[in-house]
Structure formats: C-alpha cells, structure tokens
Write a structure and sequence with these properties.
It comes from Psychromarinibacter sediminicola. By secondary structure, the protein is mainly alpha-helical. The protein has 2 domains: 3-209, Cation efflux protein transmembrane domain (Alpha-lytic protease prodomain-like, Up-down Bundle), CATH 1.20.1510; 216-290, Alpha-Beta Plaits, CATH 3.30.70. Helix content is 67%, strand content 9%.
Length: 308
C-alpha cells in the first residue's frame, strides 16, 4: 500500500473519530440537562475528552505525515507522542474530578433524584451504536496502516463502551428499582477506566519520547533476518528507537571485504528490503563493514559482532 493511501486512511479514521465525538458531546449535553445523572456526566466528560483527543490525534497524524526537512531530518513522527502525552495528563485530571464528584455524592446522604431516564437511555444507546461503528472502521485502518495514534484511539473508544453500558444500567436501576446510588458507583468505575487508559497512553508516549528501544520480539526478528541473510557474515551495533508510529533501526553488517562496492551495496539494500517487508513501520539504516575489522581503541561503545 502506498504512503499516500495509508495517510488517507489514517486521516479518515481521525476525521470520523472527531465527528463521532462531537455528535456524542452534543447528545449527552442534552441528556444531562434532562436527567441530572452523574453517570451521564461522567460519560459526557469522557466524550468531551474523546473530542479533544481525536482533534489532537488528527492534527498529530497530519503533522507526523510531513516528510523530513532541513530542521527535522528524521521526520515529524514525535508529534504523535507529544500529543498523546498531553492528552493523558488532561484525561487523568478529568478522571480525578469525576471520582471526586461521585465520592461526594455517595457520602453526602440520599442522592438527588434522576429524571427523564428514558431520554438518557436513548442517548446512551446512540452512543454505543456510533462508538461501535467507529471502532470497526478504526480496526480496518489499523490492519492496513499500523498507525499508533489510530490504535490508541481505538483502545480508548473500546474502553468507552463499558461505561456507556454502565450508564444505561444506572438509569434503568434508578427508573425501575429506585437505586440512585448505582449512578455514582458507575461514575467511579468510569473514572477508574479513564485513569488506567491515561496512564497507559502516557507511558507509551513517554517511552517513545525517551527513545525507548523497539519491543524485544521485533529486535529478535531483525537479528534473525540479518543472521541468516545471504552474504552477511556477521552484524553488530543493532540499535532501535521508537518515534510515533515509526521504529528507527540502525545496523552494522559485516561483509567480504574483497567484493566490489556494488556487490556490498546490493547485499545491504536487499537486507534493508527484507527488514522493511517484515516490519513496514521501520526506517532502516545499514552500515557495511569488512568482516574481521578490529574495533578502534577509541571506539569503546561498539558492541561485539554476531555471526551465524
């Protein structure tokens, strides 16, 4: 799939995510004014955050897709991580506010009555239906592009489905059983899910900004490809770092020093294509050394070579 096609799919997922979030914010504002339900308030706050996250993610997708330039030789993929880190802080603050409101209502005596439960249930059913459709489209985009922003957004929306169902149960319990406290309990559960999701997103963004290595299974896979590749007699200094949805890979390979430069280049280029075929999200740079070359005494950082 071409880069333009992937970029178009990622943008479509971002636009759809922002559109769904905007519709749900407006619908839940109406439902909250009609019901005064704390669980709907929690769901409204979650949708408002979804809108912010989606707009930020859309901007990050657009900016990260820009090609490298004079000031950003390795591209702009870190924009995704910066956006995700900022979003996680706001989500944590919102979760704390929702939990505080729920605890206050639980300890302050009999809960305020919830009204117009039927309208609230209709809005929450609409929320679940729209969210489910969005998640299905995001899943299709992720399979095609592997974009990290879309994947994180999908996980967040998947997490929204459970609080939405919980809000419906809270409204039903209030309307049929008179159990108004269920509303606050559901709100606490929604706050906990928000906090867990925010910590997960924030950790992933922080790791990427701190140049964390690729997952061990990816490193092992690259090592296997290099170790078994025709013409490669050894390799060393395999280094990786994550930036947004891109994994940068640097690798030194050892080749027969008697072969021509054209032959050495052909081996290195073929190995790069093999790695990209296995890991399309990678940006691969390969340095070629003659086999048996001795490390320079002033180069203590060089790692031992690995051979077949």
């Amino acid at each position: 799939m071409s880069g333009n096609r992937k970029h178009g799919l990622n943008l479509s997922a971002g636009l759809l995510s922002a559109s769904v979030a905007l519709v749900l914010v407006l619908a839940k504002l109406w439902a909250l004014s009609a019901t005064q339900s704390l669980s709907i308030a929690a769901s409204l706050a979650d949708s408002a955050l979804d809108l912010m996250v989606s707009v930020g993610g859309l901007a990050a997708i657009a900016y990260a897709a820009r090609p490298p330039d004079e000031d950003h030789a390795f591209g702009h993929a870190s924009a995704e991580d910066l956006a995700a880190l900022g979003q996680s802080v706001v989500i944590l603050a919102s979760a704390a506010a929702i939990a505080g409101g729920a605890v206050f209502r639980l300890v302050s005596g009999p809960p305020s009555p919830i009204t117009a439960e039927g309208r609230g249930i209709v809005v929450m059913v609409l929320s679940i239906a729209l969210t489910s459709g969005l998640v299905l489209w995001q899943r299709r985009v992720i399979r095609a592009t592997g974009n990290k922003v879309v994947a994180a957004d999908q996980l967040h929306y998947l997490g929204d489905l459970i609080p939405g169902i919980g809000a419906i149960l809270a409204l039903w319990a209030s309307a049929t059983l008179g159990l108004g406290q269920v509303d606050s309990i559901v709100a606490l559960g929604a706050a906990a899910m928000l906090a867990v999701g925010a910590v997960r997103i924030g950790k992933g963004a922080w790791d990427a900004l701190m140049d964390r290595s690729a997952p061990p299974e990816m490193i092992e896979g690259i090592e296997t490809i290099a170790r078994d590749f025709p013409g490669v007699l050894g390799f060393h200094d395999l280094k990786t770092r994550i930036s947004g949805s891109v994994v940068f890979v640097n690798l030194h390979i050892e080749l027969d020093g008697a072969q021509t430069l054209d032959e050495a280049h052909a081996i290195g280029a073929a190995l790069r294509r093999a790695i990209l075929s296995a890991y399309p999200q990678a940006d691969v740079m390969i340095h070629k050394d003659p086999v048996g070359v001795k490390p320079h005494p002033e180069d203590p950082r060089r790692r031992p070579a690995q051979t077949r």
